[in-house]
Write a structure and sequence with these properties.
Elements: E1 11-15, H1 44-56, E2 61-65, H2 75-83, E3 90-95, H3 100-110, E4 114-118, H4 124-131, H5 136-148, E5 154-160, H6 169-174, E6 181-187, H7 198-201, H8 205-212, E7 216-217, E8 226-230, E9 237-241, E10 254-257, E11 262-264, E12 273-274, H9 276-281, H10 286-295, H11 315-318
Parallel strand pairs: 1-2, 1-10, 2-3, 3-4, 4-5, 5-6, 6-9
Antiparallel strand pairs: 7-8, 8-9, 10-11, 11-12
Length: about 325
């Protein structure tokens, strides 16, 4: 299905929980968030019904996110159920990697194709500080096992935060030399917990490119949020996702489903369309609700424009 700006929308990001086993400084309050009651969140069965209707509308790519999706009981069975839906061609997951070593073999067998791993430091102590308690060694074990299983390219998502990790940019880039890894630098976005201090902590991807140097630009793939480069003779790639300094709205092909049953046509808007009530009381209108979310996609986001209201939810509640 196409939106009102003739963009083909074929990608749904699904947040299955807003809970997480980390407390990253730009994503979640240190004390965590209040756990929602069972009645306030979508069940896996309800999400599966929504995905079936979405597939009929042309959604063929699913990304499962959180919070942290691997803390949700029944995650492997859920991946199995959506992998069997006609029309769904690709299922990926974004994870912090802490539990990846435990689950990745079963997830692959269930139908998961790829993983993106959020990792903002390679230094154990710094990683622990940024995530407020995370163990980088657990993440590295998960990355190694994922590569061993042939689920490549493994994508590492790195949010560069001024004063925290900008001095590690070169070390991340070097990871791509001898492994089929895509290191993707993502500009810090002013959402929820990060809205107040994002401007002073913001590091542009243009400055990161200059810091790395000697990059070879690669052909751009339409609808990919990243612009890719490569170091000479490298096996992997380096991507730059610039939602702030150089947005990719004209190619946006996605909608988002939150764990509490809201459809978000745009990540950087507070607009949300309720689908929880529909799936529980009137499933016949699911198609209509999904269509309305696709048609509500704005032409572009209006971050940093006069009068723009920053998104109130934290990233953990949206799913990125």
């Amino acid at each position: 299905m196409k939106d009102t700006y003739n963009r083909r929308v074929n990608y749904m990001r699904i947040s299955i929980t807003d809970l997480c086993n980390l407390r990253c400084i730009y994503c979640m309050p240190e004390e965590g968030i209040c756990k929602k009651s069972h009645d306030d969140v979508l069940s896996f069965e309800e999400i599966t019904e929504i995905v079936k209707v979405a597939a009929d509308l042309g959604i063929d790519k699913i990304r499962v996110t959180g919070g942290e999706p691997l803390v949700k009981n029944g995650i492997v069975e859920f991946i199995t159920s959506i992998s069997r839906i006609d029309g769904i061609k690709d299922i990926a997951m974004t994870t912090n990697g802490i539990l990846l070593d435990r689950y990745i073999e079963d997830l692959k067998e269930a139908g998961l194709k790829r993983v993106n791993i959020s990792i903002d430091s390679l230094n154990p102590e710094r990683y622990k500080a940024i995530t407020r308690g995370g163990d980088i060694n657990q993440v590295l074990k998960g990355i190694r096992k994922t590569i061993e299983l042939g689920m490549t390219p493994v994508k590492l998502n790195v949010v560069v935060v001024g004063g925290y990790n900008e001095d590690e940019v070169e070390n991340f880039a070097k990871l791509t030399m001898d492994k089929d890894i895509e290191v993707r630098f993502i500009e810090l976005m002013p959402l929820g917990e990060a809205a107040e201090w994002a401007k002073e902590s913001f590091v542009s991807n243009e400055s990161i490119k200059k810091r790395i140097g000697n990059l070879i630009e690669l052909p751009h793939k339409i609808s990919s949020p990243a612009k890719y480069y490569q170091l000479p003779n490298a096996l992997g790639k380096i991507g730059f996702i610039n939602p702030i300094s150089d947005h990719f709205c004209s190619e946006c092909n996605r909608i988002r489903l939150t764990s509490d049953g809201k459809l978000k046509p745009c990540l950087h808007s507070n607009q949300e369309i309720d689908i929880l009530k529909a799936v529980r009381t009137n499933p016949e209108v699911l198609r209509e609700v999904l269509e309305s979310a696709i048609l509500a996609k704005p032409q572009k986001h209006y971050l940093n424009t006069q009068g723009h209201e920053y998104v109130k939810r934290n990233m953990s509640q949206i799913g990125g």
